[in-house]
TrEMBL record, chain A:
Gene Ontology biological process terms from the UniProt entry: isocitrate metabolic process; tricarboxylic acid cycle
Task performed by this protein: Regulatory subunit which plays a role in the allosteric regulation of the enzyme catalyzing the decarboxylation of isocitrate (ICT) into alpha-ketoglutarate. The heterodimer composed of the alpha (IDH3A) and beta (IDH3B) subunits and the heterodimer composed of the alpha (IDH3A) and gamma (IDH3G) subunits, have considerable basal activity but the full activity of the heterotetramer (containing two subunits of IDH3A, one of IDH3B and one of IDH3G) requires the assembly and cooperative function of both heterodimers.
This protein's UniProt keywords: ATP-binding, Magnesium, Manganese, Metal-binding, Mitochondrion, Nucleotide-binding, Transit peptide, Tricarboxylic acid cycle
Molecular function via GO: ATP binding; magnesium ion binding; NAD binding; oxidoreductase activity, acting on the CH-OH group of donors, NAD or NADP as acceptor
GO cellular component: mitochondrion
Cofactors named for this entry: Mg(2+); Mn(2+)
Entry protein name: Isocitrate dehydrogenase [NAD] subunit, mitochondrial
Domain of life where this protein originates: Eukaryota
Domain Isopropylmalate dehydrogenase-like: from-to ranges: 60-384
Automatic annotation (TrEMBL), chain B:
Quaternary assembly: Heterooligomer of subunits alpha (IDH3A), beta (IDH3B), and gamma (IDH3G) in the apparent ratio of 2:1:1. The heterodimer containing one IDH3A and one IDH3B subunit and the heterodimer containing one IDH3A and one IDH3G subunit assemble into a heterotetramer (which contains two subunits of IDH3A, one of IDH3B and one of IDH3G) and further into the heterooctamer.
UniProt-listed SMART domains: Iso_dh
Name assigned to this protein: Isocitrate dehydrogenase [NAD] subunit, mitochondrial
SUPFAM superfamilies on file: Isocitrate/Isopropylmalate dehydrogenase-like (SSF53659)
Family of this protein: Belongs to the isocitrate and isopropylmalate dehydrogenases family.
GO BP field: isocitrate metabolic process; tricarboxylic acid cycle
Location of the protein in the cell: Mitochondrion
Gene designation per UniProt: IDH3G
Superkingdom of the organism of origin: Eukaryota
Domain Isopropylmalate dehydrogenase-like: 50-374
Entries under Gene3D superfamilies matching the protein: Isopropylmalate Dehydrogenase (3.40.718.10)
Amino acid sequence: MCFSTLLWGEGYDTTLFATIWTKPVLLNIKLTLVLLLSSVHLQQQGENIPPPAKYGGRHTVTLIPGDGIGPELLNHVREVFRFTCVPVDFEMVNVNSALETDDDMNNAITAIRRNGVALKGNIETKHTLPASVKSRNNVLRTSLDLYANVMHCQSLPGVQTRHKNIDIMIIRENTEGEYSSLEHESVSGVVESLKIITRNNSIRIADYAFKLARERGRRRVTAVHKANIMKLGDGLFLQCCREVASGYPDITLDSMIVDNTTMQLVSKPQQFDVMVMPNLYGNVVSNVCAGLVGGPGLVPGANYGRDYAVFETATRNTGKSIAEKNIANPTAMLLASCLMLDHLNLNDYASLIRNAVLTTMNETRLHTADLGGQGTTSEVVQSVMRVIQSKGQFTAEL
Amino acid sequence: MTTRSMRALSGTLKPLFSLRSPQGFVVAACHQTHKSTYTAPPARYGGRHTVTLIPGDGIGPELAKHVCELFRFCCVPVDFEVVNVDSTKTSEDDINNAIMAIRRNGVALKGNIETNHNLPPSHKSRNSLLRTTLDLYASVMHSQSLPGVRTHHRNIDIITIRENTEGEYSSLEHESVPGVVECLKIITRTKSLRIADYAFRTAREKGRRRVTAIHKANIMKLGDGLFLECCKEVASGYPEITFNSMIVDNTTMQLVSRPQQFDVMVMPNLYGNVVSNVCAGLVGGPGLVPGANYGENYAVFETGTRNTGKSIANKNTANPTAMLLASCLLLDHLKLHGYASMIRKAILSTITDSQLHTADLGGKGSTSEMVQSIMDAIQSSGPRTQRH
């Protein structure tokens, strides 16, 4: 959709223009420049066209608070965005995990289809509900076909960990594999769970991985599998990776069995560069990597599909036990919101907030409980906002 | 810990009896008073046990040779029946011979048999075939921080008990539509109850306080849900042991940050594979941890992480610790505790000497040097040994 049509083509021109210029205090020149630049970008044919800004150059993003620490962290994200005057409006959609009906989830999915981008907290999967009630997070990922889950694990300078210099990108197939939710009890006491691997999805995820590796200038992609046991399934996945690899001669492909991979990760994680794998191994490996760089509070995650993108914390924890105690680490969620801003091509805001978060992380005094410190969530967020203000940006009142 | 009930003769009484009654079984009177459900497999002739030895591929053969060398040196009353399994052949005769030998002897020590990727998918993993045919339902791996080995984490002491025969390793796959493969993961009530019972019994025997079940029941509600339910049922029969559960992704994350919180862990096959490898990595690598596979009637011992080690085969750089500790587990199983503790102590004293550390521990030692040092330690500790 051409951006200029929004402004000029539907009879809004004079009214809108007048609106912009009657609010000189709140909209600065930079914003109008961003507006113009994004309209230019939109006119280029590209695969990752950000969703059209709906009104006055502001993007609307779906916000799903989820359970546990989700609501409070997302409040902080909104606070930081308002403070930094980021041109993003959040459309909040609540999903009640205790209900058995799918209405809430359908509303959320429709909202994401409408807006194209979302930021979400984890929705709890209650074990007490019957097995026919599928995991809400999973339903969201499969309905929107968010086939690639990307997690970038990097050692942060201010965080003390046992391993240093880790820089691993993990690309995990997000829609099939062991998470098909296809199970049945054919004979009483015997349960069969189906793990589905398809050629299309495997080629798609392998292609995504190699494209991403090329964009980021990475040299090696490792496919993680268990093809010695699951010969057809993981064998197909491996074969697809090899096929795709032949089209990227500048990038080396190697493969490693998942048990060896996890063992290598805990002894020598620096050897890994980009890793691509099916769903379950992706779950385990990404959690191991998150643990290696400092825990679930630090790493953001992104789920990309062809048309939609949803951002969340990488390890998808609900954090029920620390909910509303003001001790959760907001870093993961804030960095996820930066990824979202990058996706919307609001790169300046993204780097501003990201630098502020990383600067704050360097201060051990502010570390929250998961990093071994005693700081609170609000202190961290305040510090982030102070750093942003000190950079000289035009911001709201603190 | 098998349930075969035949009489056995302890190796320490061998010198007394072997000359007098070479035929049949000789009952050691002092052992009759102790009544237990477990008895070691029968010593066949003159108080010596026969154990099947499957060298396997990669570093297997050389490590198996070192084990034989060490046993001969210490005069351990164990004879090895060597059965070779050729991993390049597609026929199952080799592995069937091996299985028959294990049925005959009851106990085995094996190296890992390579699974050739170039062969068609109908060619099942030989190791998996062995485990399922002999119904070796429990794979037990005890990961302990060793004193001489420097690792990022200290004071780790985790027993991982992994269901060994079903789960994702059922080898049931098919391509119903071209380009779409379905792999079946089977979880049954009987086997889940059995492994949970094994886990709690082991925890009780070893005086452990907590058992953690690892699962992914939020996604695989029926399958891992059933597993979890079975664990809870069994837990109710062991009130002195606390039972908790953890999702596999959180488990692996906790393992790399705070592994000291785990005590005994029980889980289905695939998670067991991953978690036990993580634990092995945490305590120092694949060269240090022994593993044991127990069934109703048979027991097979091997290295904990089942590596073939093709790239370091025949280079005299492999770490023999895992295989030697596995042979100590074997001796414990055969109730030859004296020999087991003697060899184990010698191994631990050798490991403390970082001069002898092999390449996987960051040193430059060779396999033969380590084995030599172990034999020296045994000789210096006193018992009568062969000249070497």
